[in-house]
Amino acid sequence: MRQYGFRGKSSAGEWHYGLLAQSAGFIIQPRAGMYISNSVGAPYAYRVIPESVGQYIGISDKNGNEIYEGDILKDSDGRILLVEWFECRFCLKALTETNFIRALNIMEWFESDFPYPEIIGNCFDNPELSEESK
After folding, report:
1. Which domains can be identified in the chain, with CATH numbers?
2. Residue ranges with strand state E in the chain
3. Over the stretch 78-98, which tens digit does the pLDDT of each residue have?
C-alpha cells in the first residue's frame, strides 16, 4: 500500500511531518497558507513555509531515513542528486558532472543496480550543496 506524507518547515525553523492542508484563512486556521497536520492528523496543524513543503516518495535511503521531495542524495559513486517532481513523477536531477539522465524515474533507479543513496541534506536547509556541485 502506498504511503502518503509531507513535511514542511515553520518560520521558527522546525520541520513538521504529517498530512498537507491549505487554508484560505477562514476554516482551518485564521491565516491563509499551507499547513502540516500533527501526527494524528487533527485537530492542530503547523503553519509552514510553502516552498519548503515536500512529499514523501515512498522509499528510504541506505540508513532507513524517509526520502522527501527536495532531499539531496549522494550515492557511493559520489554523485550528488536532487529529488524533484518532474513530468508527473519523482525523478533525480544530477547536481554533479555525470552522464546521469536528468529525468530518471526514481523508482526505476532504486530497482536498478545503481549505488544505493544516502540523504546528505535538502535544498531548503542546504542550498550550498546544490550550488557547490555546479
Report:
1. 6-52 (no CATH), 54-132 (2.30.30.290)
2. 6-9, 15-18, 20-23, 33-37, 45-48, 54-60, 66-68, 71-74, 80-86, 89-94, 104-105, 118-122
3. 888 899 887 777 878 878 776
